[in-house]
Structure formats: structure tokens, C-alpha cells
Amino acid sequence: MKYELGDRITSTERYSLGVTSLLRAAPKRSYGTGFTRFNYRLGLSLGIYYVGDCQGDLENDFELPSYFRTDAAIFYKQGQLRTQINFRNLFNIDYFEQTQNLLRVYPGEPFDVHKVAGVVAVVFLIFTFFTGFCWSYAEFVNLMIYAVTFSQKQADPVSVPLAGKSALGLKEQLKTAQAALPDASLRRIDFPSKLEEVLTVSFKLP
Q: Cβ–Cβ contacts within 10 Å for residue 6, how many?
């Protein structure tokens, strides 16, 4: 037999018997399509796969039926951090994924709601603990970040009055800050508690 590069080999010849048989667990046709949508930090992915019928052994004594399987995934992205939860066999279909012979046929993994709920709960608890720890021990976490990234801590800004000039009012300061980030929306204003501290304005970028 002669095959060109890129051909899918689905059969083998037994020259001594002059018989052609299809390879085990090699479907003649298989297709897949996917869809992904992101909304800021949260994303959803959906995949539909078709696997055609195939032979269960080299003797071609039995066939594995074709099937459609639907998978899904949820993504969360925060900076360089990306977390993903996969949902395999979303509609819990019965199908056979692999085989060796008639006595060893392996079914596909079913969709387990309890397992998915457990994974979601564990991920949620980990995120809750992580964010709570970072919030409660922000100073320690910041020092760890500086140490890991080999960067230096920036000096805290200090408010210094300019001679002969009066301080800007809140409206003028907000206008100046908004001009620097015209597409951002105002989230928070932190007022100074001491004369040398600065007014902090927080924005959210689109």
C-alpha cells in the first residue's frame, strides 16, 4: 500500500491472506467545532465533537457506534492569572471512547454534576482564601511580590504645597485625573488624613 503525507491511515492489509481490514478505534470521519466568548475577565467556551463509527478490533468482529459529544469550559482571567473549569460530556451521553478487543471496551466518562459542583466549590474557596489573605496582609504580600519580581518598592507620594499657589479643589483634581484617563470610569476617592498625604483617585479601565 502507498500513502501520501497527510493521509489518514484507516486500514491495513494482511498480504498472506489477501484480506483488507480497518484499523481498531480509527473512525473514518470525525469533526469538531468550537465557540469562545469573553466578557472582560470571564469567558465561556463550547465544543461539539462528532466521531464516526469504527471497528473494535483488527479482525473487524464488531463496531463501536458513532456519537456526538458536547464539552464546555468557563475561563476567568485576571492579569497573568487564568483559571479554567472544564465540563466534559455536558449532556451525559453514553459512548465508547476506546477499545482493545471484544472483552475490553472502555466507555467515555459521564458528566458528573457532583464532581463539577465539588470542583467549583474548591476553586471558589481557594479564591476566597487567597483574596482574603492578600487583603488582610497586604503589606506582607506586597513585600513578597517585590522579592519575587526583584523590584523595588516605590516611594509613597507626598503632598508638598507650592509657594504662592493655592491648593486645587476637589473638582479641579478630578477633572485633571479624568483628563489623564478619558475612557475610564471613577471607582473610588481616598481622602488624605494628614496634611502631607495625597488625594488618591481610583479609576476602572474599560
A: 5
* CA dihedral over 15, 21, 26, 28, signed as positive or negative: positive
53 confidence band (pLDDT: 50, 70, 90): confident
pTM of the entire structure? 0.46
Q: What angle do CA 106, 109, 115 make, to 5 degrees?
A: 150
The CA-based dihedral angle spanning residues 55, 57, 62, 67, taken in that order and rounded to the nearest 10 degrees: -40
Distance between CA 179 and CA 167 in Å, rounded? 19
Non-local CB neighbours of 150 within 8 Å, separated by 6+ positions = none
Instruction: Work out the mean pLDDT of the chain and round it to a whole number.
Output: 79
Where would I find the beta strands (DSSP E) of 40-184?
42-51, 54-55, 63-64, 67-78, 81-87, 96-101, 104-107
Dist CA 10 CA 191 (whole Å):
72
Q: Is residue 123 within 8 Å of 85, Cβ to Cβ?
A: yes
Instruction: Please say whether the beta carbons of 47 and 70 come within 8 A.
Output: yes
CA distance 66 to 94: 11
76 vs 84: CA distance, rounded Å: 6
Instruction: Measure CA of the first residue to CA of the last residue in the chain; give whole Å.
Output: 59
Separation between Cα atoms, residue 9 and residue 28, nearest integer Å: 9
